[in-house]
Design goal:
- By secondary structure, this protein is of the alpha/beta class.
- The protein contains 24 helices and 19 strands.
- A six-stranded mixed sheet has the order 5-6-7-3-8-9, with helices on both faces. A six-stranded mixed sheet has the order 15-16-17-12-18-19, with helices on both faces. The chain has a four-stranded antiparallel sheet with strand order 11-10-13-14, covered by helices on one side.
- Strand 13 and strand 14 form a beta hairpin.
- Helix 16 runs parallel beside helix 18.
- The model has no long low-confidence stretch (mean pLDDT 88).
């Protein structure tokens, strides 16, 4: 039986009121009822705009000029009341905090029913059913803002399931989740798809994580156009994704580094489905031919953290006697699940909060008592949420804010701003209002505003959140170049294991406020029990090495890192 279309774009174009050029151009595609679709594309490609068209935010909340035809669940969004459309299309936003309206989980889930003036008994039954479906029944009296990232997503999902919508739209569902929670989120979405038969549309560029569970089709968007609409096996085979800024799964990158070529018949969309027999000899020979890797020579200690403890409320310990050193010129990742204490530790290093116990030293001198201004002359800190750092209206003024505050002459400010914006890929947008930018673009603005101050230690809290592979690779290659040429020391606070794998040499792992590991990246990533303990699921490189019966998993990972680094550097 052929399913009816639930989404139909026909030569659809859209231009935002504030833009001169169209964000979407001649989009034509059909999604059938019950399908599970991934919409992928680089930052600024138009994929989120497609989502806003589907749920009616365009044109009801975001004004602009549209043409062509769009039908969603039998409605034309442009001429349908937004409240009416929301009964057919449910959206889980990237920023779940911006979606909450209730003081408790139960109130938030019941919001749509309250708007419809449903009887209280009916609401209680419906809320209980929706909460149970996403395994949040025991949290109904909790504040949604007190939950973990994964729990917040489940509450948002329950809130849209309450109306029994036909189509579920997930906008960057993995952006703010640690790997283990993201894995559970993808499993939950898949479970809902299998059990309810609802149409699922996922907007995401973290391809390998989404493909943890089967997808019917990948729709690739770039520069407002549909570039490809294929099965995952087909798209992973033809190389289209990489040319448009989407990272292929790591196990496929390893296969290509070993000189292998892919066919659709290999079923490359999943490591479990991949026909490895045809590639086994290439991969083993590639690994056996690995060169000896020289250890990085020790450098003077730049920052020493000793016995740091901290509690926000005086009762629950966020950090417990954490200690480590960072050498000059090192590239280190600070890993751990959401709530492990990573951001808190970074704020203590920067001087935003003071530790309850312990001290910090800079080049041997205690700096625990220094204020933020004094710390900022040697340490740059880029927060996870760009909206917490932005204070100016225009991009150029935001990047210029620091030098102006320090009294740099305007001619030098202009030169430094333009140079930094070019480096960060933001120069074409220099006169744009920051409010017109995507989340990922805002992130790059805040990083540019710190880089212009020329810190010795750069701390970046979740630097890849909201950014596609092309943009974060371009930026991280620049950061790595600074590290090599000027000795800039890098500390990445992240749960993005791909980022840590490719751009850091050593990892510190936090779990529930304790430092549970301090070792080289290959050794950390080869320890599956450690990663599981820290809610950081092992990468597919680990799974590939095990399938090849390679015991020295850390050496396999190290060889991948060095081989891929050589390719990136040309």
């Amino acid at each position: 039986m052929i399913a009816d279309p639930i989404v139909e774009f026909s030569l659809f174009s859209f231009r935002y009121e504030s833009r001169k050029e169209a964000t979407l151009e001649d989009i034509s595609l059909t999604i059938k009822s019950g399908e599970k679709i991934l919409i992928a594309g680089p930052s600024g490609s138009g994929k989120t705009t497609i989502g806003n068209c589907l749920n009616g935010l365009i044109p009801h909340s975001f004004k602009g000029v549209g043409s062509g035809r769009l039908k969603v669940a039998g409605f034309e969004p442009a001429s349908t009341d937004l409240h009416e459309l929301s009964k057919s299309v449910g959206t889980v936003l990237q920023d779940t905090d911006g979606q909450f309206v209730g003081l408790s989980v139960g109130e938030d889930i019941a919001f749509a029913l309250e708007n419809d003036a449903r009887p209280r008994d009916e609401m209680h039954t419906a809320v209980s059913r929706a909460a149970s479906l996403v395994e949040m029944g025991e949290y109904l009296n909790r504040s949604p803002f007190a939950l973990s990232g994964g729990q917040k997503q489940r509450v948002s999902l329950a809130g849209i399931l309450i109306d029994d919508v036909d189509l579920l739209l997930f906008d960057e569902p993995l952006a703010n989740l640690d790997p283990a929670t993201g894995k559970l989120a993808i499993e939950l979405i898949d479970q809902l798809h299998r059990e309810t038969g609802k149409t699922i549309i996922i907007i995401e560029h973290r391809l390998e994580d989404v493909l943890h569970r089967p997808i019917d089709r990948i729709i690739l968007i770039d520069r407002g156009k549909v570039i490809a609409d294929e099965s995952p096996d087909s798209m992973l085979t033809d190389g289209t994704l990489a040319t448009h800024g989407i990272r292929e799964p790591l196990y496929l990158s390893a296969l290509r580094l070993a000189g292998g070529s892919l066919r659709v018949e290999d079923h490359p969309a999943s490591l479990d489905s991949l026909d490895l027999d045809r590639h086994r000899d290439n991969l083993v020979s590639w690994f056996d031919s690995r060169p000896m890797v020289a250890e990085r020579p020790h450098q003077p200690k730049l920052l020493t953290v000793k016995g740091i403890s901290y509690s926000y409320d005086g009762e629950l310990t966020t950090l417990d006697k954490v200690g480590f050193s960072i050498e000059s010129g090192e590239r280190i990742s600070l890993l751990g699940e959401n709530g492990a204490g990573k951001s808190t530790l970074a704020k203590i290093i920067m001087g935003l909060i003071k530790p309850d116990e312990g001290n910090l030293s800079w080049s041997g001198n205690v700096i625990t008592g220094e204020n933020i201004s004094e710390r900022s002359r040697k340490i740059g800190f880029v927060m996870q949420n760009p909206n917490h750092m932005i204070s100016q209206h225009l991009i150029r003024d935001e990047v210029a804010f620091g030098p102006r505050l320090r009294g740099v002459c305007e001619a030098d400010v202009t030169e430094r701003v333009e140079s930094t914006l070019r480096t960060c890929g933001l120069y074409p947008f220099r006169n744009w209002p920051i409010s017109a930018l995507s989340y990922g673009q805002k992130k790059r603005v805040t990083i540019a505003a710190i880089l212009i101050m020329e810190p010795q230690l750069l701390i970046m809290d979740e630097p890849t959140a909201g950014q596609d592979y092309f943009h974060y690779t371009e930026f991280m290659e620049f950061i790595t170049k600074l590290n090599r040429e000027s000795g800039l020391t890098i500390l990445l606070v992240t749960h993005d294991l791909h980022l840590a794998l490719e751009y850091t040499e050593r990892s510190l792992v936090l779990s529930h406020g304790y430092l549970i590991a301090d070792d080289s990246v290959p050794k950390i990533f080869a320890d599956s029990e450690l990663l599981t303990r820290a809610s950081l699921k092992p990468t597919s490189l680990y799974g590939l090495a095990r399938k090849l019966n390679i015991e020295a998993v850390d050496e396999f990972i190290a060889h991948f890192i060095s081989s891929e680094g050589a390719v990136r550097s040309g």
